[in-house]
Design the sequence.
């Protein structure tokens, strides 16, 4: 049999894709699901396939030799994939503590490692919020005050969950183990399963008397205002992390973090391009021909820009360091000005005569139209 075909994956499949395929098939054909002997056989096949493809060394050997035996063309002692023997699975204990262990957590409702983790300090959850800024606030920086509703350490019990003066004792339900263990006999042999104790949530310990403030949680929900300093030049969709400003942990665990995702409103005047600013400046045709000096509005105030004679439409000028401050530095981006030359749409009699004189002076063979410019 081909393990790739058994799991329904391509030979170029990643480890994650192989693992997902095995999870899906194992859940479908697992004996505990009440399947028949065909399902049991199928389960053995997909488990054997994963034994090969889930191990990098065995997978490489299979890809090279078409077998997991000792060498080219090597064969095992039983049916399966080359050198893999299905009989190895007859008396297996699937609580491996690694490898298949995390996969079988899907079926068996948790593991010893998870229960043990609940007994020690547990880090608090992170909090994510959106902070909305105006264009100017993002450019020049500001301080925003936000109000959060979050878990904070209970001051009455100092986060322990027990009423001051009372003890922390072993859970009567699980006898301090944090889990319920049972052994099942299956066609694959004996399988040990563990479920988290609901009475202590896997901690193995409970308060003798629960704290009257937090009801044994060790945390209480409170509203608190937090000031967030926004640095000058921050970009849209950036994130600011405030360590320890998330939710309080459990059993002395450290607090989570607060992530502030930045949303910046666009400006009606300026277009931001990274740390640069881009604007357009409309000028008269004669300004483009003769040259001029014009006022340019920047985020740092008005600036004089000299327009050379003969400036073409679409010409771009750079105002150095008149852009957005670069976050965390003293430098700034630049301001780019694109020139838009406005051609007159209507001419009065005097203007028309002057343009006709210019046509003659330039000896241009132009046939003015009755509509439009000279209408």
Sequence:
């Amino acid at each position: 049999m081909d393990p790739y075909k058994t799991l329904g994956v391509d030979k170029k499949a990643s480890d994650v894709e192989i693992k997902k395929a095995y999870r899906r098939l194992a859940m479908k054909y697992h004996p505990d699901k009440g399947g028949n002997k065909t399902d049991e056989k199928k389960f053995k096949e997909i488990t054997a396939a994963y034994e090969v493809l889930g191990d990098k060394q065995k997978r490489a050997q299979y890809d090279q030799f078409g077998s997991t035996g000792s060498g080219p063309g090597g064969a095992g002692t039983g049916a399966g994939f080359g050198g893999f023997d299905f009989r190895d699975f007859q008396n297996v204990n699937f609580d491996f503590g690694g490898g298949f262990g995390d996969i079988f957590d899907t079926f068996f409702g948790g593991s010893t490692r998870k229960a043990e983790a609940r007994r020690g300090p547990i880090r608090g959850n992170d909090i994510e919020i959106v902070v909305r800024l105006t264009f100017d606030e993002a450019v020049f920086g500001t301080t925003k005050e936000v109000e959060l509703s979050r878990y904070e350490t209970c001051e009455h019990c100092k986060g322990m969950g027990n009423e001051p003066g009372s003890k922390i004792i072993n859970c009567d339900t699980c006898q301090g183990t944090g889990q319920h263990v049972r052994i099942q006999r299956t066609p694959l042999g004996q399988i040990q399963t563990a479920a988290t104790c609901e009475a202590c949530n896997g901690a193995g310990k409970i308060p003798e008397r629960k704290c009257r403030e937090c009801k044994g949680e060790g945390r209480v929900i409170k509203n608190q205002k937090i000031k967030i300093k926004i640095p000058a030049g921050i970009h849209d969709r950036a994130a600011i992390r405030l360590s320890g400003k998330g939710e309080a942990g459990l059993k002395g665990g450290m607090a989570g973090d607060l992530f502030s995702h930045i949303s910046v409103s666009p400006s009606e005047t300026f277009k931001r391009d990274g740390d640069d600013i881009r604007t357009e400046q409309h000028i008269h045709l004669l300004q483009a021909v003769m040259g001029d000096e014009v006022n340019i509005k920047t985020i740092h105030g008005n600036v004089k820009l000299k327009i050379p004679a003969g400036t073409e439409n679409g010409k771009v000028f750079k105002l150095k360091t008149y852009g957005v401050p670069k976050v965390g530095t003293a430098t700034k981006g630049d301001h780019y000005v694109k020139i838009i030359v406005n051609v007159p749409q209507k001419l009065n009699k005097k203007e028309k005569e002057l343009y006709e004189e210019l046509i003659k002076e330039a000896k241009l063979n132009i046939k003015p139209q009755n509509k439009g410019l000279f209408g």
